Amino acid sequence: MGNCLGSQPADPNSSSSKPNSSARPSIPGTLGNDSNGGGLSVTSSSAGLSRFSAAASASSEDTCLTGDILPTPNLKIYSFSDLKNATRNFKSDMVLGMGGFGTVFKGWVDEKTLAPAKYGTGMMVAIKKLNSESIQGFEEWQAEVNFLGRLSHPNLVKLLGYCWDEKELLLVYEFMQKGSLESHLFRKSSAIQPLSWDIRLKIAIGAARGLAFLHSSDKLIIYRDFKASNILLDGNYNAKISDFGLAKLGPTGGNSHVTTRVMGTYGYAAPEYIATGHLYVQSDVYGFGVVLLEMMTGLRAFDTKRPNGKQKLTDWVKPILSQRRKLKTIMDARIDGQYSSKVLSQVSQLALRCLEDDPRKRPSMKEVVELLEQIEVTKPKNRPVH
Questions:
Q1: Disulfide check for 58: which of 62, 189, 212, 294 has CB 3.0–4.6 Å away?
Q2: How would residue 320 be classed by pLDDT, with cut points 50, 70 and 90?
């Protein structure tokens, strides 16, 4: 989940920050207009599946790039006991990773019914368990269910079900074999091979398609926390966007932006959002530009271990993007010779456009997808940069 940037944390005792277990309905209630969920509601069904519905039906324009915003999708409702069984009582050797939301465990469920299965049988899933100390946890958990529970697209991680059992909040996702883009770019391990340039381009296209889908519907969805750790990879390095805890419905009624408390991750958030709290659809485009820089350079968006002036990647690298002769000096040495000077220039110019200070000058994600696809199709093979 994202971090708060320069704003006051929510009151941990408020009803929007955590569930009231003493007067808890069977499943979450409607999200208010000021919450991350933007007015999507949850209603119950009687067969172990929940039905999530929007205030208005999805329109014919809700489909983009083979995806759908579903009016009444089904999610499996799990008990806490179910997920204890699926994870061998949340044993430490079942841990896949840890984040701001809490700990992610591997578990197993039946492929057809999604019911808990014995260790090593059925289908492996990722089970995210809320850290009880998380102040924003319930709000973000609820937004994740409301948004991702209705979204269906090849480049979005699939949410299979959830658990709300007293104070226990959990989410069950499809398992992504290759982990996060962040781990492949930045973590030094003999078990993780450097991503080739072609694979990086493939990942960029997949992630861009996911964002373009979110931006394409009548009910614009602003993702708000686009970063390398939220891009997960399946066994074929297909990219899928995960973690919708900070997602927000976009502007309506002719407005250009929504105003909200500044949340996200330092180094990725757009400058207009940090300065004013004004959140645009194009704010996601800026975050995409930062991730594109990370894939080009192999360097983190923000790193205090780097010298002054180079700690924030955009401040350091952005001026070089328009200097064609210097581009190779900022590129990840692990992919040297895997791209042509023409392709490098094209990707650099795209990154520069995504990182424009004025959000109105940034391309749409649909245009970003089209440009990246053109680069992938036309890129010459085995022509190193000179």
A1: 62
A2: very high
| φ and ψ of 47, to 5 deg | -120, 35
Q: Which residues, 6 or more positions from 88, have their beta carbon under 8 angstroms from its beta carbon?
A: 94, 119
The token pair at 29 is 């209630």
Q: Which residues contact 367 (CB under 8 A, 6 or more apart)?
A: none
Is 147 in a helix, a strand, or coil? Answer: helix
Beta bridge partners of 106: 126
Task: Look at residue 108 and tell me whether its pLDDT is greater than 50.
Answer: yes
Digit-coded pLDDT (tens) for 246-302:
999 998 777 888 999 899 899 999 999 999 999 999 999 999 999 999 999 999 999
- Check residue 283 and give left, alpha or beta (phi > 0: left; psi -120 to 50: alpha): alpha
Q: Which residues are catalytic?
A: 225
334: nearest Cα among 366, 365, 296, 379: 296
- What tokens were used for 209? 């398609």
pLDDT value for 167: 86
Gyration radius (Cα) of the chain, Å: 21
Answer yes or no: is 219 a known binding residue: no
Domains identified in the chain and CATH numbers:
3-174 (3.30.200.20), 179-378 (1.10.510.10)
| Long-range contacts formed by 57-63: CB under 8 A, 24+ apart | 58/217, 59/217, 59/218, 61/216, 61/217, 61/218, 62/217, 62/218, 62/219
Between the alpha carbon of residue 311 and those of residues 292, 293, 303, 366, the distances in Å are 17, 14, 5, 31
Q: 366: which 2 tokens?
A: 């649909």
Residue range 211-250, pLDDT digits in tens: 999 998 767 899 999 999 999 999 999 999 999 989 999 9
Neighbours of 136 (CB within 10 A): 24
Alpha helices in 229-354 (DSSP H): 271-276, 281-297, 313-317, 327-330, 341-354
Q: Check if the beta carbon of residue 279 is closer than 8 Å to that of residue 286.
A: no
How far apart are alpha carbons 170 and 75 in whole angstroms? 13
Average pLDDT of span 142-161? 92
